[in-house]
Amino acid sequence: MNISARITDERVLDVRFDDASLIVDLMDGRTIAVPLAWYPRLLHASAAQRAHWEKAGAGYGIHWPDIDEDLSTDGLLHGIPAARAN
Predict the structure, then answer these.
(1) Minimal CA–CA distance to 6: which of 34, 24, 30, 33?
(2) CA dihedral defined by 49, 73, 81, 63, rounded to 10 degrees?
(3) Percent of the chain scored above 70 by pLDDT?
(4) Distance between alpha carbon 29 and the CA centroid of its chain, in Å?
(5) C-alpha angle with apex 33: 31 to 38, nearest 5 degrees?
(6) Can you spell out the DSSP letters for 3-20?
(7) pLDDT at residue 31 above 60?
(8) What CA–CA distance (Å, rounded) separates 35 from 39?
(9) pLDDT grade, residue 16 (50/70/90)?
(10) What own/partner pairs with CB < 8 Å and gap ≥ 24 does 40-46 have?
(11) Domains in the chain with CATH codes
């Protein structure tokens, strides 16, 4: 019996932005693009603040220290926007 296993690696490889999207490349070759409007802190951040990111959570998360924003690849893959302020 031949069983094919899906090999995925959801760790962050790179992060970039265009005018309307947050784009995250994963180690397994996939790319996630989500609306920048889903993440108000990133939407209102400067280009320099957006560019200053670091891997977090063993590579499964992204942290922007200048704006105190944290996102996980799991949340991005599941299409979960930032919680709204009350």
Answers:
(1) 30
(2) -30
(3) 92
(4) 14
(5) 150
(6) -PPP----SEEEEEE-SS
(7) yes
(8) 8
(9) very high
(10) 40/82, 41/67, 41/68, 41/69, 41/82, 42/17, 42/67, 42/69, 45/69
(11) 12-77 (3.30.2020.40)
Cβ(55)–Cβ(64) under 8 Å? no
**Three-state secondary structure of 38-52:** HCHHHHCCCHHHHHC
pLDDT tens across 33-68, in order? 999 999 999 999 999 999 999 999 999 999 999 999
> Which pTM value belongs to this model?
0.88
User: Residue 82: how many CB atoms within 10 A of its CB?
Assistant: 15
3-class SS at 57?
helix
